[in-house]
Amino acid sequence: MGRGEVIGEFGRLYEQQYAVALFNKVRFDIEGGGGPQPQLLHRKVPLENRSIFSGAIFQFLEENKKWRNRFFFVPDTYNINYYDNKTSHERGLQPKGTINCAGYKVLSSMDQYWELLNNSLPGVKAKVGQSPILKCATQFPVILWHPYARHYYFCVATLKEQQKWFAVFQDCVRHTNDGLSEEDKVQTPAFTDAVRLYRQAHGHYGTWEMMCGTPPQILANLVMETLLPEIRELITPRLKGKMQERQRNWMLICDAVYSLVVRQAQAQYEAVVESCEAGRPPLEASIRTDMDQIITSKEHVTNKIKAAVLPKAEKLLKVSIQPYISSILEALMDPTSRGFTEVRDVFFRELVDMSKNTVNDGDKDKVGEHMEKISMLAFHPVKMQSCYEKVEVLSLDGLQQRFDVSSPSVFVQRAQILMREQMDNAVYTFEQILHQSLEGQGSEGLCNTIQRCQDRVLKKFDYDSSTVRKRFFREALLQIFIPYMLKQLTPSVASELPRFQELIFEDFSRFILVENIFEEVVLLSVMKDIMMAVKEAAVQRRHNLYRDSIVMTNSDPNLHLLGDSSTIDWAEEYGSGQAQGEKAADGDETAQRRRRLKQVVSMIQVDGTPVQVNESCLEVPSVGGIPEEEVEDQAASAQSSPDSVHQEPVNANGTSPKVKRKAPLPPVQPANNSTPALSNGAVLKEGEPAVVSSTTESSWQDPESAASAIQSAIQQLEDAVQQEDSESLAEASEVPPETVAQLVVKFDLFFLSCLVDMTR
Q: 473 Cβ partners below 8 Å, 6+ apart?
């Protein structure tokens, strides 16, 4: 099935589910919903005027097989921007590239990477202990791996640095994976239901690891799930050369195809959404006018489907579901509750440290200084890492295959996001209560004030933590059992469903779909047992869960008024931020704002180690060996970064790799608006090793033109090198021949034609 067929079928499902989601949203707005109300306040814009972190790390460059020290900066979007050096960032230049981490896995060892790489292409295996692609400059790598997109390789000098960078990259993946807005009650459920129904129609039930990122990214993953096996079957016989060359070529092809699919999925998804949104006003008006009749009609059809489905569902439930509910619930509860307990402990320890320092040096300025650090605790990946690690041990061994659960990572990531939200809610509530308590108070009794605020917030945290975890357990059990039940029941029920559609009035047929009602009936059949299991765990006070009968009402009747307050700038209000504001009084306004951005994590640098030279370039040959580059003397390099001291990474054998210094690079120019983007969000720059960076969409449609243009560029580059013509060399190097030419030279025009036909 080609890309057009996949997106076309998805588009039809999305239009159907959009009308159903709109009906559910309007009905909820009218009827309302129950459930316990949260006690903690929620921050609306948690990362306003904040950046996450910045620092220097060695990155492996595909185009010349070198390790280059680059400066990385992560804004509040969690998209990783990287520059040649810190100065380029501070000057406001465009980044060399941007990494969107959705769908990536963060690896901390080459063995993990080799295993994933070997599994990606059957028949092309690397020997254990041998790198098929690169040699790491140190024994502390950090790798970003994606099943379809480009891979990124980094390394650091110490274990402590590796742990910090691993936590930061992991947080970027966690945040960008969570790309579906929970605030949108129409588009998001319509999208998720359309994806689920599409996969079920093709025999894929259960959880899906690649349900991550924004809707266009998820849609591209859906296309690749179907397209990749076909591409693999076509390409595998044509891969030539050594094992590492075949693996590298395969990754280049995957990234090129994925980039094309993402761009086209983006355009077509936006077109479908725009079409649905344009028709929303008349649909909503019709729903509000006929709400009672629609509900009555739906209830009538639901009762008919219940009569046909419930006996089969209850039999399946008794034999295949009920015996496993308690064991799966316990497997979910233990690591999740440990994680939430660790969140509470980390929050408590931070407040204890603040109280101790206030006793020794008790004034409001000191409190403001500590609160400035605590305010972003939930978004500090290093401090939150101990919380996230608690839930990462979650295991469903023995049950994954039975219930078609691809991996527990879906539940792990969801639990971690909820943990971060609870931490930020607790911190934000404490901020507001403490700030209100400090108004008009002197420096006396600060510790008692902090203690009172702390006790109030922890009590609210315990209640909300119980509520959030119980909801998470119910949702997780439904995600495990419902797909399994649907898979077992659909063959015997599918033939009966069409006759129920005839019972629905034509005017209401857009809002009532028998497929959705069938799934609702299955959900209701198992929900009672799930609710009872979670309720029993709460009654027994297992894992500090509260009973449903315990309801905190009006414990702080005026607290919700503080939720509408503006963000508290502790440094500014208590004087420590005034000097910083004066320093930014001169210069460009954009540069001032960049300097004023408060960073959640300090620069990743181990205490006591020198700062690395931003212009250093380490030579680490790949398996085949790479010629050395021309170098200049160390003094010239030091002059380009006078305040930095070079630090050489260490190889696994304890020796330092040879360091070659390149001539100073020209200033980074801002990216052209016409520059194409990679599938993972990276902006294509000169010399970047991505196939798609040198081929426009029209080139893919005309392989002969692409081959001619690429071969011309290669010849131009070779001539420039032989003539040592710097201007011609700069012009020719805009096309990275070593990566792009492989598609044309190694796999011929026939292969490109087949590839284009498959992706249309």
A: 329, 332, 333, 336, 534, 537
The β-bridge relationship of strands 598-599 and 617-619 is unpaired
Q: Residue 147 and residue 103: Cα distance in Å, rounded? A: 8
Q: How far apart are CA 416 and CA 706, in angstroms?
A: 46
Among 116, 147, 120, 117, residue whose Cα is nearest residue 213: 147
C-alpha 8/C-alpha 24 separation (Å) is 25
- How far, in Å, are 334, 552, 575 from residue 37 at the CA level? 25, 8, 37
What is the C-alpha R_g of the chain? Answer: 29
User: What pairing do the DSSP bridges indicate for beta strands 598-599 and 50-61?
Assistant: parallel
- pLDDT for the residue 689: 40
247, burial (CB in 10 Å: exposed 0-12, middle 13-18, buried 19+) = buried
Write down the H helix ranges in 494-513.
Answer: 497-501
Specify the DSSP class assigned to residue 172.
Answer: H
Residues paired with 80 in a beta bridge: 99
What angle is formed at CA 707 by the lines to CA 704 and CA 710, rounded to 5 degrees?
Answer: 150
Return d(Cα 365, Cα 570) in angstroms, integer.
Answer: 9
| Nearest in space to 505 (alpha carbons), one of 304, 293, 282 | 293
The residues, any chain, with a CB within 8 Å of residue 12's CB and separated by 6 or more, are none
716-744: buried (b, 16+ CB within 10 Å) or exposed (e) per residue? Answer: bbeebeeeeeeeeeeebbebbbebbbbbb
Nearest to 99 by CA among 55, 150, 47: 150
CA distance 367 to 407: 44
Judge contact between 461 and 555, C-beta under 8 A: no
Predicted local confidence at residue 557, as pLDDT:
56
Task: Name residues whose C-beta falls within 8 Å of residue 29's C-beta, 6 or more positions apart in sequence.
Answer: none
Give residue for tokens 């304890």: 654
Tokens of 288: 């509000």
Tell me what pLDDT residue 711 has: 52
pLDDT at 439 (0 to 100) = 80
> Which residues are paired to 251 by β-bridges?
none
The proportion of the chain whose per-residue pLDDT surpasses 70, expressed as a percent, equals: 69
Return the amino acid letter for 95: P
Q: Which parts of 399-445 fold into alpha helices (H)?
A: 409-438
Buried b (16+ CB within 10 A) or exposed e, 197-228: bbbbeeebbbbbebbbbbbbbbbbbbbbbbbb
What is the C-alpha separation between 739 and 728, in angstroms, rounded? Answer: 20
Q: What is the DSSP letter of 665?
A: P
CB 180 within 8 A of CB 417: no
Residue 423, number of CB atoms within 10 A of its CB: 24
* Residues 6 or more apart in contact with residue 628 via CB below 8 angstroms: 619, 660
CA distance 414 to 479: 12
Q: Provide the pLDDT for residue 122.
A: 63
* Rounded CA separation 191/408 (Å): 22
Q: Give first-to-last CA distance, the chain, whole Å.
A: 10
78-82-87 Cα angle (round to 5): 120
Point out the residues of the chain with pLDDT beneath 50. Answer: 576-587, 591, 595, 605-704, 706-707, 710, 713-714, 717-718, 720-760
Q: What is the pLDDT of residues 605-650, one digit of tens each?
A: 444 444 444 444 444 433 333 333 333 344 334 343 334 333 444 4
Q: Could you say which DSSP state residue 98 is in? A: E
**Hey, CA dihedral for 306, 300, 480, 322, is it positive or negative?**
negative
